[in-house]
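1st attempt posting a full record on here, be nice pls
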Amino acid sequence: MLVLPHSLSLITTHHCTAACDHCCFSCSPKITTRIPKEKITSLIEEAQKIPTMKLICFTGGECFTLGNELDEHISHATRLGFVTRCITNGYWAFSLEHARRRIKKARESGLKEINFSTGTFHQKHVPIERILNGTLAAAEAGIFVVINMEICDQSDEYINDIILKNEKLIELHNSKKIIIQRTVWIEADGNTSLSHPENRSRFNPKNKSSCRTVLNVLSVTPTQDLIACCGLHLEKIDELHLGSLKNNSIMDVLKNTKDDLLKIWIHLDGVEEVYLQAQKEDPSISLPYSSTHPCETCLSLYKNKEAFHAIQKVVKKHEKEIMERYMNKMTLQIFDRNVVN
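the predicted structure (as tokens):
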């Protein structure tokens, strides 16, 4: 499989201190599935054999439930020359002092970036004040922070304003030490009905884009499957699964996987454009205009039998063009080693 991935996302565990409604991986405190410690170590070492690989992301579930083991993995990845990132709900930041102590260990291990997930659905399990504590502690320590705040019609903006209108965070944001961004909260296997305004549709021309993760980011699930992206619905789309790593290396799986024109096209033009081409092939296909996230559109494309069948026909017609464009992009990446978006 011809890929030049820049990041490896390790979904270390499905265990989480929270059980958020519509969690993309349905994580909870009851689930204990995880990548074994020694496997995480070997995966980091395997990633070093991929010349374009720059970043190791530790996520979950909740990666901080690994405790000191997480710091060991961060340190190992740092020694091998990787930039390291953790994605967390911030449960551990009980107070500013607690947060400082925990961040100190992570920083000494080499952590470069931390992403906090929060919002209406998260704060039912993790008070949003802990995001404040964690962010302030990380910024003090020189760790770059990204705060991802859920947004949907059901969002409680009064709660979100604790972050959005905090003077210290605004100052840090303006000085570019942190980023605060709104990310759409999409339906998974939750109970609450979610909705979004029409202007948030991914089929709105201003919202369409190429897919930044497929073939750029490789993920490993807690069941040790290698995935071609880090998308929110990656565990629901069989075609994104490249193979098991239980008895194989990342390189082994990549070498034994054929190039997939559909993934390549999504990588180049984005799944919405691909879906539109499927509709041109078969006008009876209905587009998922309610989709507000590329992962929603992607899940729909792969699960809609008519659309999937139609796009296979289109892909064959444009095989040469798609591969030429992909090879041109790959060539540019080879000459530009700074491939992390």
